[in-house]
Design goal:
By secondary structure, the protein is an alpha+beta fold. It has one domain (12-470): Creatine Kinase, Chain A, domain 2, CATH 3.30.590.20. The protein is 44% helix and 14% strand. The protein contains 16 helices and 14 strands. Strands 1, 2, 3, 4, 5, 8, 11 and 12 form an eight-stranded antiparallel sheet that branches. The longest helix has 24 residues, at 12-35. The two termini are 37 Å apart.
């Protein structure tokens, strides 16, 4: 969603031309897959995108992302939907023994750059899945929507496709019920997206491993339990994002058509299955360009407006080799920078460990896996799920401590990462304590019933970069 759209409106002919170009590029992609691994990179690489909230001295949203971005003036920083959010786009690294140190240095330097810029405007940055201090007034698009026309276009297309306002309704301990005529409710959530480049020959296995790992990381990393003062899901971003950009009209919802934001359709035989599924989704941006098929402009633009929680991406590296990568989208931002890094290495290590273990990654019936995903989003670390070896329902915490940690160590070791002890310790201690960002926020809110105090205590811990399992109540 980062790039601007050149047109200000689309005609019926634009949509016809776009679809024709997209289908032509889809056939081109199939021809690439027919050639197989000879034209695809076999390298493992990692990158990340980290969304941050901009706060004033009272820990309320501060809509100054343009000032900060203009001041930094770097392509590694970009807009998000709301003016009180921005995104850090980290560098890409080879997945080898030095990757954690490189990522740590990169993340801390980019974070410091953004934080120093925010201070010039009497502001600061924080990491939240859902910012607890948001209020309904902060979703006025005239005051708070970022200055990019693509966001206005998304709202226009939502109206054209839905024929009604956007509704968000889900239940945790309290009910969350919201309605808007634009996409601004999507600004409730801020996320960490991990990009994981994988070899062509094992792409299907890695996709299936990522689906399973996403269920586990969703509970482990939950940090979005408070939505406008309501106690909602432990990872409320899942429900918010799926509903806030739902382009289906009533008939398509009644027919059971898939949301644009979704877990998955099912297990696959090829990544082509995923790209073929894109036929089912209406085109959002008919931004037709006279570019060669090999540039995949229309293919990638359409794929980029289908927000699977595990998104498949086809790209090229600087050596001209085609690449396949997984965009792992389930994690929230925060609670701290050390927690963020722990979440990254747990996700990558667990996926790799599942591959190395040769576990049958499709043993669990897909509908059970999908049900687990949503029940874990609701309950976080206290959930149960169907474990991969025997398909039995077990405690998520016990599985992480008994199996997940070992699989993660095996996975990281296979990349030559033998100094991940700090991250493995945090995984163990967070799981054992049962305290992630979501449970800390809910515990704090229950004890003090004060969003201002919660924000103050959260930011004190965050600024000291204390891992969340050690945050006091």
């Amino acid at each position: 969603m980062g790039a601007e759209i050149s047109k200000r409106e689309f005609t019926e002919q634009d949509f016809i031309a776009f679809k024709k170009a997209w289908l032509s590029e889809l056939e081109y992609v199939k021809s690439l897959f027919d050639k197989g691994s000879e034209i695809f990179s076999d390298r493992f690489r990692i990158g990340y995108e980290l969304e941050a909230c901009i706060l004033n001295s009272a820990n309320l949203p501060e809509p100054i992302n343009k000032k900060i971005l203009d001041d930094i003036n770097s392509p590694l920083f970009t807009n998000e939907l709301a003016k009180y959010d921005l995104e850090i786009n980290g560098n890409v690294f080879e997945l080898d023994g030095k990757a954690p140190q490189k990522l740590d240095k990169n993340l801390l330097s980019l974070w410091q750059l953004a934080q120093d810029s925010a201070k010039k405007f009497n502001a600061k940055l924080g990491l939240f899945g859902v910012l607890p201090s948001l209020k309904l007034e902060h979703f006025d698009k005239e005051l708070y929507q970022s200055d990019m026309h693509r966001y206005t276009l998304v709202s226009q297309r939502m109206k054209e496709l839905r024929h009604e306002s956007v509704k968000v309704l889900f239940h945790g301990e309290d009910e969350v019920s919201l309605e808007k005529n634009d996409v601004m409710l999507e600004a409730l959530g801020t996320s960490l997206q991990i990009h994981f480049q994988i070899p062509f020959d094992e792409a299907v296995e890695y996709y299936h491993a990522a689906l399973l790992a996403s269920v586990i990381l969703l509970g482990f990393g939950a940090n979005s339990p408070l939505v406008l003062g309501k106690r909602a899901w432990h990872e409320s971003r899942i429900a918010i994002f799926e509903q806030s950009v739902d382009t289906r009209d009533k008939q398509r919802r009644d027919d059971g058509d898939e949301r644009r934001v979704h877990f998955a359709h099912g297990y696959i035989d090829s990544w082509i299955d995923l790209f073929e599924q894109n036929r089912e989704f209406k085109i959002i941006f008919a931004d037709v360009k006279n570019k060669p098929k090999s540039k995949l402009h229309h293919f990638n633009l359409h794929n980029g407006t289908i927000w699977r929680w595990i998104r498949p991406i086809l790209d090229k590296d600087k050596d001209g080799k085609h690449t396949l990568r997984l965009e792992l989208r389930v994690l929230p931002s925060g609670p701290s920078l050390i927690d963020t890094q722990t979440n990254i290495w747990f996700f990558i290590g667990l996926i790799q460990g599942l591959i190395k273990s040769k576990i049958n990654l499709t043993k669990i019936p897909f509908e059970k896996l999908k049900d687990d995903f949503y029940s874990v989003a609701k309950m976080g670390l206290e959930s149960e799920f169907n474990e991969p070896k025997n398909g039995k329902k077990v405690s998520l915490k016990e599985w992480i401590l008994n199996d997940g940690l070992e699989l993660t160590k095996v996975g990281l070791d296979s990349f030559g990462i033998d100094d991940a002890g700090e991250y493995l310790d945090i995984i163990k201690e967070r799981t054992s304590s049962g305290q992630n960002g979501a449970s800390w926020q809910l515990g704090h809110f229950k004890k003090f019933n004060s969003i201002p105090k919660l924000m103050e205590d959260y930011m004190k811990n965050f600024e000291q970069n204390i891992p969340v399992h050690r945050w006091s109540l």
